[in-house]
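Progress report, Aim 2. The chain analyzed during this reporting quarter is listed below.
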Amino acid sequence: MSRYDVFNGDADGLCALHQLRLIEPLDTRLVTGPKREIDLLARVPVDEAESVTVLDLSMEKNGAALRALLEAGVRVTYFDHHFPGEIPAHPGLSAHLDTRPEVCTSLLVDAYLDGRARAWAVVGAFGDNLNRSARRAAESLGLDALEVERLRELGICLNYNGYGPSIEDLHFAPDALYRRLQPYADPFDFIREEAAFAHLRDGYADDMACARALKSEYEDDRHRLVILPAEPWARRASGVYANELAQAAPEQAHAILTRLSTGGFLVSVRAPVARPQGADQLCRRFPTGGGRTGAAGINHLPEADYDAFVEAFRAAFV
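Predicted C-alpha coordinates for the chain:
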Protein backbone atom coordinates (compact mmCIF):
# COMPACT_ATOMS: atom_id res chain seq x y z
CA MET A 1 0.00 0.00 0.00
CA SER A 2 1.27 3.48 -0.90
CA ARG A 3 0.84 7.05 0.28
CA TYR A 4 0.09 9.73 -2.29
CA ASP A 5 0.51 13.48 -2.52
CA VAL A 6 -1.84 14.96 -5.12
CA PHE A 7 -1.26 18.64 -5.86
CA ASN A 8 -1.80 21.47 -8.29
CA GLY A 9 1.29 22.19 -10.38
CA ASP A 10 1.21 25.96 -9.76
CA ALA A 11 3.10 27.95 -7.12
CA ASP A 12 0.40 27.51 -4.49
CA GLY A 13 0.24 23.74 -4.89
CA LEU A 14 4.03 23.37 -4.99
CA CYS A 15 4.65 25.56 -1.95
CA ALA A 16 1.80 24.04 0.03
CA LEU A 17 3.23 20.54 -0.44
CA HIS A 18 6.80 21.68 0.11
CA GLN A 19 5.92 23.27 3.46
CA LEU A 20 4.02 20.20 4.57
CA ARG A 21 6.78 17.74 3.75
CA LEU A 22 9.51 19.92 5.24
CA ILE A 23 7.73 19.67 8.59
CA GLU A 24 6.00 16.30 8.18
CA PRO A 25 8.36 14.24 5.98
CA LEU A 26 6.73 11.30 4.25
CA ASP A 27 7.73 9.01 1.41
CA THR A 28 4.91 9.46 -1.10
CA ARG A 29 4.05 8.99 -4.72
CA LEU A 30 3.38 12.27 -6.52
CA VAL A 31 0.37 12.99 -8.72
CA THR A 32 0.30 16.40 -10.41
CA GLY A 33 0.17 18.18 -13.76
CA PRO A 34 -0.10 21.64 -15.33
CA LYS A 35 -2.17 24.17 -13.41
CA ARG A 36 -5.37 23.52 -15.38
CA GLU A 37 -5.27 19.75 -14.78
CA ILE A 38 -7.36 19.70 -11.64
CA ASP A 39 -9.22 16.37 -11.86
CA LEU A 40 -6.14 14.55 -10.58
CA LEU A 41 -7.58 12.47 -7.76
CA ALA A 42 -8.92 9.87 -10.20
CA ARG A 43 -5.31 8.96 -11.01
CA VAL A 44 -4.81 7.49 -7.55
CA PRO A 45 -5.44 3.71 -7.69
CA VAL A 46 -8.06 2.94 -5.06
CA ASP A 47 -6.74 -0.55 -4.40
CA GLU A 48 -3.14 0.65 -3.85
CA ALA A 49 -3.62 3.72 -1.68
CA GLU A 50 -3.27 3.74 2.09
CA SER A 51 -3.56 7.52 2.48
CA VAL A 52 -3.83 10.55 0.20
CA THR A 53 -3.03 14.21 0.80
CA VAL A 54 -4.65 16.64 -1.65
CA LEU A 55 -3.48 20.22 -2.03
CA ASP A 56 -4.93 23.11 -4.04
CA LEU A 57 -7.41 21.09 -6.11
CA SER A 58 -11.14 21.76 -6.27
CA MET A 59 -13.06 19.21 -4.22
CA GLU A 60 -16.04 19.76 -6.49
CA LYS A 61 -14.06 18.68 -9.56
CA ASN A 62 -12.67 15.63 -7.72
CA GLY A 63 -15.81 14.63 -5.84
CA ALA A 64 -16.44 11.23 -7.41
CA ALA A 65 -12.82 10.10 -7.00
CA LEU A 66 -12.77 11.40 -3.41
CA ARG A 67 -15.88 9.43 -2.49
CA ALA A 68 -14.48 6.27 -4.10
CA LEU A 69 -11.29 6.55 -2.05
CA LEU A 70 -13.16 7.17 1.20
CA GLU A 71 -15.53 4.27 0.57
CA ALA A 72 -12.50 2.01 0.03
CA GLY A 73 -11.16 2.97 3.45
CA VAL A 74 -8.43 5.34 2.23
CA ARG A 75 -7.64 8.21 4.62
CA VAL A 76 -7.73 11.57 2.82
CA THR A 77 -6.38 14.91 4.05
CA TYR A 78 -7.57 17.82 1.93
CA PHE A 79 -6.24 21.40 1.84
CA ASP A 80 -7.91 23.78 -0.60
CA HIS A 81 -9.39 27.25 -1.16
CA HIS A 82 -11.59 26.65 -4.23
CA PHE A 83 -15.37 26.20 -4.27
CA PRO A 84 -15.78 22.71 -2.75
CA GLY A 85 -19.33 21.78 -3.71
CA GLU A 86 -20.78 19.13 -1.41
CA ILE A 87 -18.27 18.07 1.25
CA PRO A 88 -18.55 14.36 2.13
CA ALA A 89 -19.35 13.65 5.77
CA HIS A 90 -16.92 10.79 6.32
CA PRO A 91 -14.61 9.91 9.25
CA GLY A 92 -11.77 9.19 6.82
CA LEU A 93 -11.73 12.78 5.52
CA SER A 94 -9.78 15.58 7.21
CA ALA A 95 -10.73 18.75 5.35
CA HIS A 96 -8.98 22.10 5.68
CA LEU A 97 -11.03 24.34 3.40
CA ASP A 98 -11.40 28.12 3.19
CA THR A 99 -12.80 29.98 0.17
CA ARG A 100 -12.20 33.54 1.37
CA PRO A 101 -10.53 35.57 -1.41
CA GLU A 102 -7.55 36.52 0.76
CA VAL A 103 -6.64 32.86 1.46
CA CYS A 104 -4.69 30.35 -0.63
CA THR A 105 -3.72 26.74 0.04
CA SER A 106 -0.18 27.67 1.08
CA LEU A 107 -1.62 29.90 3.81
CA LEU A 108 -3.95 27.10 4.94
CA VAL A 109 -0.97 24.78 5.30
CA ASP A 110 0.95 27.55 7.04
CA ALA A 111 -1.83 27.81 9.64
CA TYR A 112 -1.89 24.02 10.04
CA LEU A 113 1.89 23.99 10.63
CA ASP A 114 1.84 27.01 12.97
CA GLY A 115 4.10 28.93 10.60
CA ARG A 116 7.09 26.57 10.82
CA ALA A 117 7.88 26.92 7.09
CA ARG A 118 6.30 30.34 6.61
CA ALA A 119 8.75 31.72 4.05
CA TRP A 120 7.47 29.15 1.56
CA ALA A 121 3.87 30.10 2.39
CA VAL A 122 4.78 33.68 1.49
CA VAL A 123 6.19 32.45 -1.84
CA GLY A 124 2.99 30.51 -2.56
CA ALA A 125 0.74 33.45 -1.69
CA PHE A 126 2.70 35.79 -3.93
CA GLY A 127 2.48 33.21 -6.72
CA ASP A 128 -1.28 33.08 -6.28
CA ASN A 129 -1.44 36.87 -6.73
CA LEU A 130 -2.39 37.48 -3.09
CA ASN A 131 0.16 40.24 -2.57
CA ARG A 132 -1.50 41.77 0.47
CA SER A 133 -1.86 38.41 2.22
CA ALA A 134 1.71 37.47 1.33
CA ARG A 135 3.12 40.69 2.77
CA ARG A 136 1.06 40.28 5.91
CA ALA A 137 2.39 36.73 6.38
CA ALA A 138 5.95 37.95 5.77
CA GLU A 139 5.78 40.51 8.59
CA SER A 140 6.76 37.92 11.21
CA LEU A 141 9.89 36.88 9.28
CA GLY A 142 11.88 40.06 9.85
CA LEU A 143 12.70 40.52 6.17
CA ASP A 144 13.69 43.75 4.49
CA ALA A 145 11.88 45.09 1.41
CA LEU A 146 14.39 43.58 -1.03
CA GLU A 147 14.07 40.13 0.53
CA VAL A 148 10.29 40.28 0.33
CA GLU A 149 10.59 41.26 -3.31
CA ARG A 150 12.81 38.24 -3.95
CA LEU A 151 10.15 35.94 -2.49
CA ARG A 152 7.55 37.62 -4.69
CA GLU A 153 9.69 37.07 -7.78
CA LEU A 154 10.16 33.40 -6.89
CA GLY A 155 6.42 32.94 -6.39
CA ILE A 156 5.65 34.50 -9.75
CA CYS A 157 8.25 32.34 -11.51
CA LEU A 158 6.98 29.12 -9.93
CA ASN A 159 3.43 30.05 -10.88
CA TYR A 160 4.45 30.96 -14.42
CA ASN A 161 5.84 27.45 -14.89
CA GLY A 162 2.44 25.87 -14.21
CA TYR A 163 0.52 27.47 -17.08
CA GLY A 164 0.01 25.76 -20.40
CA PRO A 165 -2.40 22.98 -21.34
CA SER A 166 0.33 20.34 -21.63
CA ILE A 167 3.61 19.37 -19.98
CA GLU A 168 5.36 20.08 -23.28
CA ASP A 169 4.54 23.79 -22.95
CA LEU A 170 6.20 24.04 -19.52
CA HIS A 171 9.84 24.61 -18.67
CA PHE A 172 9.67 21.90 -15.98
CA ALA A 173 7.13 19.18 -15.28
CA PRO A 174 5.57 20.13 -11.92
CA ASP A 175 6.71 16.95 -10.18
CA ALA A 176 10.28 17.55 -11.41
CA LEU A 177 10.13 21.16 -10.18
CA TYR A 178 8.90 19.97 -6.79
CA ARG A 179 11.87 17.59 -6.56
CA ARG A 180 14.15 20.57 -7.18
CA LEU A 181 12.49 22.44 -4.31
CA GLN A 182 12.80 19.56 -1.87
CA PRO A 183 16.43 20.10 -0.73
CA TYR A 184 15.76 23.73 0.21
CA ALA A 185 14.26 24.60 3.57
CA ASP A 186 15.13 28.24 2.86
CA PRO A 187 13.72 29.77 -0.35
CA PHE A 188 16.65 32.20 -0.50
CA ASP A 189 18.99 29.22 -0.87
CA PHE A 190 16.86 27.98 -3.76
CA ILE A 191 17.08 31.42 -5.40
CA ARG A 192 20.87 31.56 -4.99
CA GLU A 193 21.82 27.97 -5.77
CA GLU A 194 19.24 26.27 -7.99
CA ALA A 195 19.67 26.70 -11.75
CA ALA A 196 15.93 26.13 -12.24
CA PHE A 197 15.21 29.55 -10.77
CA ALA A 198 17.40 31.40 -13.26
CA HIS A 199 15.88 29.37 -16.09
CA LEU A 200 12.34 30.30 -15.03
CA ARG A 201 13.23 33.95 -14.41
CA ASP A 202 14.69 34.31 -17.90
CA GLY A 203 11.81 32.47 -19.57
CA TYR A 204 9.30 34.60 -17.70
CA ALA A 205 11.00 37.82 -18.82
CA ASP A 206 11.01 36.75 -22.48
CA ASP A 207 7.39 35.57 -22.53
CA MET A 208 6.04 38.57 -20.66
CA ALA A 209 7.77 40.96 -23.07
CA CYS A 210 5.75 39.35 -25.87
CA ALA A 211 2.50 39.61 -23.89
CA ARG A 212 3.02 43.25 -22.92
CA ALA A 213 3.47 44.21 -26.58
CA LEU A 214 -0.15 43.27 -27.39
CA LYS A 215 -3.11 45.68 -27.38
CA SER A 216 -6.40 45.03 -25.63
CA GLU A 217 -9.28 43.59 -27.63
CA TYR A 218 -11.76 45.39 -25.38
CA GLU A 219 -11.33 47.86 -22.51
CA ASP A 220 -13.42 50.24 -20.44
CA ASP A 221 -13.19 51.59 -16.89
CA ARG A 222 -14.29 48.26 -15.36
CA HIS A 223 -13.02 45.64 -17.80
CA ARG A 224 -10.04 44.67 -19.92
CA LEU A 225 -9.89 41.73 -22.34
CA VAL A 226 -6.76 40.64 -24.18
CA ILE A 227 -6.42 37.88 -26.77
CA LEU A 228 -3.10 36.01 -26.99
CA PRO A 229 -2.02 33.94 -30.02
CA ALA A 230 -1.80 30.15 -30.23
CA GLU A 231 1.88 30.07 -29.25
CA PRO A 232 3.70 28.25 -26.41
CA TRP A 233 4.91 31.54 -24.92
CA ALA A 234 1.33 32.79 -24.76
CA ARG A 235 0.06 29.65 -23.05
CA ARG A 236 2.84 29.96 -20.46
CA ALA A 237 2.31 33.69 -19.87
CA SER A 238 -1.48 33.80 -19.83
CA GLY A 239 -2.14 33.45 -16.12
CA VAL A 240 0.78 35.48 -14.79
CA TYR A 241 0.01 38.22 -17.31
CA ALA A 242 -3.55 38.30 -16.01
CA ASN A 243 -2.16 38.64 -12.48
CA GLU A 244 0.14 41.48 -13.50
CA LEU A 245 -2.66 43.40 -15.17
CA ALA A 246 -4.93 42.86 -12.16
CA GLN A 247 -2.35 44.29 -9.75
CA ALA A 248 -1.67 47.28 -12.02
CA ALA A 249 -5.37 48.20 -12.38
CA PRO A 250 -7.14 47.03 -9.19
CA GLU A 251 -10.51 48.53 -10.15
CA GLN A 252 -10.70 46.56 -13.41
CA ALA A 253 -11.70 42.96 -14.08
CA HIS A 254 -9.41 41.19 -16.54
CA ALA A 255 -9.87 38.36 -19.03
CA ILE A 256 -6.99 36.83 -20.96
CA LEU A 257 -8.11 34.59 -23.82
CA THR A 258 -5.36 32.46 -25.35
CA ARG A 259 -6.12 30.91 -28.72
CA LEU A 260 -5.76 27.13 -28.85
CA SER A 261 -4.30 25.40 -31.90
CA THR A 262 -7.32 23.08 -31.87
CA GLY A 263 -9.75 26.04 -31.92
CA GLY A 264 -11.36 28.13 -29.23
CA PHE A 265 -9.68 29.72 -26.24
CA LEU A 266 -8.05 29.04 -22.90
CA VAL A 267 -9.43 31.69 -20.53
CA SER A 268 -7.99 33.32 -17.40
CA VAL A 269 -10.26 35.68 -15.45
CA ARG A 270 -9.30 37.99 -12.60
CA ALA A 271 -11.90 39.82 -10.55
CA PRO A 272 -10.92 43.38 -9.59
CA VAL A 273 -8.28 43.26 -6.86
CA ALA A 274 -10.30 45.94 -5.05
CA ARG A 275 -13.38 43.67 -5.09
CA PRO A 276 -12.09 40.09 -5.51
CA GLN A 277 -15.37 38.29 -6.06
CA GLY A 278 -17.29 36.71 -8.91
CA ALA A 279 -14.58 35.17 -11.10
CA ASP A 280 -15.53 31.59 -10.21
CA GLN A 281 -19.25 32.20 -10.71
CA LEU A 282 -18.60 33.64 -14.16
CA CYS A 283 -16.36 30.78 -15.29
CA ARG A 284 -18.61 28.04 -13.90
CA ARG A 285 -21.29 29.22 -16.32
CA PHE A 286 -19.23 27.54 -19.05
CA PRO A 287 -18.74 23.73 -19.17
CA THR A 288 -14.97 23.60 -18.49
CA GLY A 289 -14.86 26.56 -16.11
CA GLY A 290 -13.95 26.75 -12.45
CA GLY A 291 -11.62 28.35 -9.94
CA ARG A 292 -11.89 30.60 -6.94
CA THR A 293 -13.75 33.81 -6.24
CA GLY A 294 -10.91 36.17 -7.18
CA ALA A 295 -9.30 34.19 -10.00
CA ALA A 296 -10.77 31.53 -12.25
CA GLY A 297 -10.57 30.12 -15.74
CA ILE A 298 -12.12 28.12 -18.55
CA ASN A 299 -10.08 25.30 -20.06
CA HIS A 300 -11.83 25.47 -23.42
CA LEU A 301 -14.13 28.25 -24.59
CA PRO A 302 -15.43 27.42 -28.10
CA GLU A 303 -15.12 30.21 -30.65
CA ALA A 304 -18.92 30.17 -30.97
CA ASP A 305 -19.21 31.12 -27.28
CA TYR A 306 -16.91 34.12 -27.49
CA ASP A 307 -19.68 36.74 -27.73
CA ALA A 308 -21.61 35.09 -24.89
CA PHE A 309 -18.48 35.12 -22.74
CA VAL A 310 -17.79 38.81 -23.42
CA GLU A 311 -21.37 39.69 -22.52
CA ALA A 312 -21.20 37.62 -19.34
CA PHE A 313 -17.79 39.07 -18.43
CA ARG A 314 -19.05 42.64 -18.76
CA ALA A 315 -22.20 41.85 -16.74
CA ALA A 316 -20.32 40.03 -13.96
CA PHE A 317 -18.20 43.02 -12.96
CA VAL A 318 -20.09 46.33 -12.95
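The chain has twelve helices and eleven strands. The first helix runs from residue 11 to 23. These observations will guide the mutagenesis work planned for the next reporting period.
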